[in-house]
Amino acid sequence: MAIGTQEDSDAMLGEINMIPFIDVMLVLLIIFIITVPVIKHAVNIDLPSASNEKVLDKPENIRLAIDADGAYFWNEQRVEDADLANRLGLAAAQTPQPELHIRGDKAVRYERVALAMAAAQRAGVRKIGFITEPAAGGQ
Fold this sequence. Notes:
The protein is an alpha/beta fold. 32% of the residues lie in helices and 14% in strands. It is built from three helices and five strands, in the order αβββαβαβ. It has helices at residues 19-35, 81-93, 110-123; strands at residues 62-66, 72-74, 77-79, 100-104, 128-130. Strands 3-2-1-4-5 form a five-stranded mixed beta sheet.
């Protein structure tokens, strides 16, 4: 749509009407101002911090060790598979409930560790931890 003058109706002015462009730009600016805070590329999480401190066993903690052959040891005493579930059930019934610290040999099959964890879960043990040795050289 061209803008003309009253005297010369056939002649066209060379100016562009900027008002519709300004309206569109203002609408886009408002849309971006509203949507930018919603579109975040980062997830806010609190990362845990790790320490290299030695964990001291309290007397009420249960130390379940699994040797390379897959045998279970309850506080350094050998336990059969059938007796493990009974002991875990008794430990889960205690108040306060003791923590279960699992130490597995690096050569043991993962299946034996998973069976111990499943038995602890079925018994109702809520706190399970894994004990490892620090790597040589501090890495």
